[in-house]
Design brief:
Layout (H helix, E strand, L loop, with lengths): L8 H8 L2 H10 L5 H14 L3 H9 L15 H10 L1 H5 L3 H18 L12 H12 L3 H44 L7
InterPro entries: OHCU_decarboxylase, OHCU_decarboxylase_sf
Protein name: 2-oxo-4-hydroxy-4-carboxy-5-ureidoimidazoline decarboxylase
GO molecular function: 2-oxo-4-hydroxy-4-carboxy-5-ureidoimidazoline decarboxylase activity
Length: 189
């Protein structure tokens, strides 16, 4: 059995970037498992959060290839964005980053929001190819794809948050026990 999954509104905001999503998730917390949290997150994202909430979440992301997230993104969200793009940045060249920046600008001009793709483990070349492919989409189609990509990112971040929380709780339990053992006490509380 898993420890209950629940965070505060700011934690959920770091996972997604939409205040509506964060409020709804916090109100529905805690969850009996990660699976249940994810099921509720998907329901909230696709059925309760409106277009403005989607755009708000999209705006919390940096353009792919840009290590700095927008100033309104939380510190946790900024750290995650850097980590999620680490493979792309590690596989980039000056020319590929320049081309990516140019296509990001074209995409933003056409669609009005940042190109969203779950970048975790992806190379610059694969992300650039995906950006070029999706640029041909109609705005309504691209909006739906971006929302699906946002949910993939949210899913990764919820999993990361849960892992951090489990590690923290384990430390809260184990450190005192280890300290007791180090002091020579054989009796555990």
């Amino acid at each position: 059995m898993e420890v209950g999954v629940g965070f505060d509104e700011n934690d959920y905001l770091s996972c997604c970037g939409s205040t509506k999503f964060a409020k709804e998730m916090a109100a529905a917390s805690p969850f009996p498992s990660y699976h249940r949290a994810l099921t509720v997150a998907k329901h909230i994202w696709f059925n309760i959060v409106d277009v403005n909430g989607w755009l708000q979440a999209f705006s919390a992301h940096p353009s792919i290839g840009q290590p700095r997230p927008p100033s309104h993104a939380s510190a946790t969200s900024a750290e995650w964005s850097i980590g999620e793009q680490s493979t792309a940045l590690a596989t980039s060249t000056a020319s590929s980053l320049q081309e990516l920046a140019e296509w990001n600008a074209r995409y933003m001009q056409k669609f009005g929001f940042v190109f969203l793709e779950c970048a975790s483990g992806r190379s610059t070349e694969s992300l650039l190819a995906e950006l070029k492919r999706r640029y041909a989409n109609k705005p309504i189609v691209e909006f739906e794809i971006a929302a699906q990509e946002q949910m993939k990112i949210t899913e990764l971040r919820l999993g990361s948050s849960l892992q951090v929380k489990k590690t923290y709780l384990l430390q809260l339990i184990l450190i005192p026990l280890l300290l007791l053992k180090v002091k020579g006490q054989k009796k555990f509380v």
